[in-house]
Amino acid sequence: MSKENTQNLFQEIISHCKEYGFVFPSSEIYDGLSAVYDYGPYGVELKKNIQEYWWKAMTQLHENIVGLDAAIFMHPKTWKASGHIDAFMDPLIDNKDSKRRYRADVLIEDALAKIEDKIEKEAEKAQKKFGDAFDKEKFLATNPNVIRSKEKLVAFETRFKKALEDNNLEELKQIIVDLEIACEVSGSKNWTEVRQFNLMFSTEVGSLAEDSSTIYLRPETAQGIFVNFLQVQKTSRKKIPFGIAQVGKAFRNEIVARQFIFRTREFEQMEMQFFVRPGTQKEWYDTWKEARMKWHRSLGFAQESLKFFDHIKLAHYADAAVDIQFNFPFGFKEIEGIHSRTDFDLKNHQEFSGKKLQYFDPETNESYIPYVVETSVGLNRTILAVLCNAYKNEKLEDGSERVVLSIPPFLAPVQIAVFPLMKKDGLGEKAYEVFNSLKWDFKCFYEEKDNIGKRYRRQDALGTPYCITIDHQTLEDNTVTIRERDTMQQERISIEKLKEVVSEKVDWRKGLR
Fold first, then answer.
1. Alpha carbon distance 94, 102 (integer Å)
2. In the beta sheet, which residues pair with residue 376?
């Protein structure tokens, strides 16, 4: 798909989200607030379902993972100990002609991704030319164009990694110049110098200005887990290895806050910190990498839509880090990070607080500060990935078209829509009877306006997996028509079997088995 087509597709998805009540621009009656969004009636249900699915996968299916809900406000020393006050910065650069602001590292990453795409396209062209006789591995190793592109890629990746490690802002600017990166708005290569930008929002707490103290809106939820580590361990009576899971809001004053809900200033994280014995972190890091990829695949994502991406530069707390990336219409981007955080956080909190955060291991009869393996999912990004994956504009056999969201049934905002074929002849009353019997177990929707075809189309656009129609035959034999969203096939079943049939179809456990 061309860049223009993917941009058009993304705009369609954004428009669909607004039209059908998934996501609205915040404070829109006042012309909105940049990179802040509200979740509408169906967006909030999808969000809740994804969060609950993650929570069950983490805490219900793992007897050694427990939950926590830490406060957003924390003592300011927390962020000094964690390194955020000194090190939580992004490199910022402006285009002098368009006045557009960019993250310098993201500009470079996108340019390097284009070189990778160029190599892949060379291989695709050769595949079409040579057919079954094509040896991709040999082609990538011997083709002169591919070799030149690979050499260029390795050279720039090496420079980029060193510049990030050395915090060399001049070199980052030079890489942008050498890669001939142009502003997407002005098309010019007229760049400012690169400078650092701290991402944390600060505010004040206290009743009087002169007595107030500066505190921060948390930029991540992890630190709430770390400062509560020993209390959770002791009260839950867990032995290492064990994990603490949390879902909560975080706040970052992003330089480049765009691409709809992908990068926003207020967002939610689903994080789990897994505490392990020092020396075992590599084993657990690999274990959680595979477990988390399996969970994302259970959301209905195709094999080729997800990939691992090893970090070029490690964060100040990590000895290993990888992203799980999803192929959005604007390219492969991170939806989850898995990090081996060593003992950095607990050790620093112990030092700054003066309180011991050591664990006594009854198996080894020794005390130590545990190492941590972190899994951190962006809830908002996962919602966007599910919507992008589900959105389809289909042309049907009769020549008509429909927009459908093929959301996995266990995540769908509405699971069952109940329709009377018409309001009269007692069908409306019977339909309400069916609706009221199902609403205790499923998220249901009732509608009697418009013809049945239009009602089906509306539910397709909302992602509702099953529609139930009550007609005159229902009054005779107590059967209804159940229609499946993706195939549009219909069958008649008795009302008594409805709960059993739908329960089996929308069971969340199917995704993880």
1. 6
2. 271, 337
Single out the residue in 370, 395, 420 at which a domain terminates. 395
Distance separating alpha carbons of residues 306 and 308, to the nearest angstrom: 7
Residue among 245, 279, 281 at smallest CA distance from 63: 245
| Strand order from edge to edge, sheet including 101-103 | 101-103, 89-94, 195-198
* Tally of domains within the chain: 3
Structure tokens at 244: 């603490």
- Name the stretches of the chain with pLDDT < 70: 1-4, 207-212, 257
237 and 354, same structural domain?
yes
Q: Kindly state the tokens that stand for 339.
A: 């990090």
Read off the pLDDT of residues 163-208 as tens digits, 9 standing for 90 and up. Answer: 988 889 999 999 999 999 999 899 999 999 999 888 889 888 876 5
Q: Whole-angstrom Cα distance, residue 494 to residue 399?
A: 33
The whole-angstrom distance between residue 344's C-alpha and the CA centroid of its chain comes to 26
141 & 179 share domain: yes
Same domain, 62 and 190: no
**Residues 344 and 268 occupy one common structural domain:** yes
Q: Are residues 459 and 310 in the same domain?
A: no
pLDDT confidence of residue 181: 96
- The reported pLDDT for the residue numbered 137 is 85
Amino acid 320 reads: A
Radius of gyration over every alpha carbon of the chain, rounded to an integer in angstroms: 26
Output the CA angle 252-254-256, nearest 5 degrees.
Answer: 160
The amino acid that residue 49 corresponds to is: N
The total of other beta-carbon atoms located within 10 Å of residue 492's CB is: 13
50: buried, middle or exposed (CB in 10 Å: 19+, 13-18, 0-12)?
buried
Q: What is the CATH number for 164? A: 3.30.40.230
pLDDT at 132: 81
Contact present, 383 and 47 (Cβ < 8 Å): yes
Burial of 381 per CB tally in 10 Å (0-12, 13-18, 19+): buried
The answer to whether residue 488 is domain-embedded is: yes
Residues 6 or more apart from 454 whose CB is under 8 A from it? Answer: none
Residues 179 and 325 in one domain: no
Global pTM value: 0.86
DSSP 43-61: HHHHHHHHHHHHHIIIIIS
25 preceded by a cis bond (ω within 30 of 0): no
Question: What is the residue range of 473's domain?
Answer: 405-512
For 241-277, give the DSSP string: SEEEEEEEEEE---SS--TTTTS-SEEEEEEEEEEE-
Tokens matching residue 207: 């009743």
SS3 212: coil
Dist. CA 150–CA 170, nearest whole Å: 25
In angstroms, rounded to a whole number, what is the distance separating the alpha carbons of residues 313 and 316?
9
Closest CA to 344 of 385, 316, 303, 368: 316
509: DSSP letter: G
Q: Is residue 211 part of a domain?
A: no
